[in-house]
Amino acid sequence: AAFVLVAGCSDGGGSDFTPGGAAEDSGFAQSDAAAAFPDSGGPTGPAKPTVIYAHSDGELFSMDPATQKITDIGAFDTGNGTSPIITDLAVNVSGDIWVNSEVAIYKAKLPSGTGPVQLTKVTNIAAKTGQRFYALAFTPAGVLGPDEKLVAGDNAGELYAIESNGATTDLGAFGTDANGKNYELSGDLTFYMQNGKARGLGTVRLCDPNVPCGSTYNDMLVEVDVMAMSAAFASKTPGNLRKQFVGSGSGYGRLYGIGAWNDSVYAFERMGSTMPAQLVI
Fold first, then answer.
1. Which of 18, 171, 173, 227 fits 159 for a cystine, CB–CB 3.0-4.6 Å?
2. Residues with Cβ < 8 Å from 236, sequence gap 6 or more?
3. For residue 157, how many other CB atoms are within 10 A of its CB?
């Protein structure tokens, strides 16, 4: 799907990335977009969502896909006066909202209208020294087991299946280019059904261990190899998850969140600290 501007969004942010995917202190929070599906949509894929959720590091927003009206739902709240910095958001087919910080996963409860968004901690997920998680998405049922499965991406560009007890399975990464540079997640990934088949998409950029990735202004859209991911989950052996690039580049810099259904892809984009965040499709 081509990316064209459909709406602007204030208060959305986007962190720059240094080698290994670590967030720089850019003064802006990471933001994301995810589609909330009203049902599974049957064998051909999900029905068109009635709402699209998005977030900054501390605030949840929604957008009506028909009118493109954006609503500030409210701030994330753990109930103890402090909240973690939220780096991503995922929505399952039941419409349940899950979010993550760099080290833990939470389930979100929406207010009846607008107001605080209550977070309940589900599990810690960071297991290695320096490991930080940025991307979060649900795979469709049947890809990683019989049910939907939560998948998270870390600062090394690795994807992990997340169990309800916090156990993780390393599924692999997106490989390297001819010069040995890593294709690492620049912001997010999403999974959906299209014509009865599970598909996955991620935003990536080339990362040189000696050059900050934040200097890149043209993120690429990559198709996740769902079959390789499924095989890695079954064998517990990480694989190369890059199936193919979708286009030669998005034409937008720093795509920090994506959500998709059928042939439409929504993304959050931010070019720099002086530019407003934009929602593109």
1. 171
2. 169
3. 23
> How is the chain split among helix, strand and coil, in percent rounded to 5?
5, 45, 45
CA distance 147 to 96: 14
Name which of 224, 184, 159, 251 is nearest 17 in CA terms: 184
| Residue type for position 172 | G
CA angle, 60 then 164 then 189, to 5°: 50
73 vs 61: CA distance, rounded Å: 5
Render pLDDT for 204-261 as a digit per residue (tens, 0 to 9): 878 776 766 655 556 777 889 999 999 999 999 999 999 988 755 444 455 556 666 5
pTM recorded for the entire structure? 0.78
Please choose, from the candidates 148, 137, 139, the residue with its C-alpha nearest in 3D space to the C-alpha of residue 227. 139
* Eight-class DSSP state of 147: S
> 151 with 189: CB under 8 angstroms?
yes
65: helix, coil or strand? coil
Secondary structure string (H, E, C) spanning 210-273:
CECHHHCCCCEEEEECHHHHHHHHHHCCCEECEEEECCCCCCCCCEEEEEEECCEEEEEECCCC
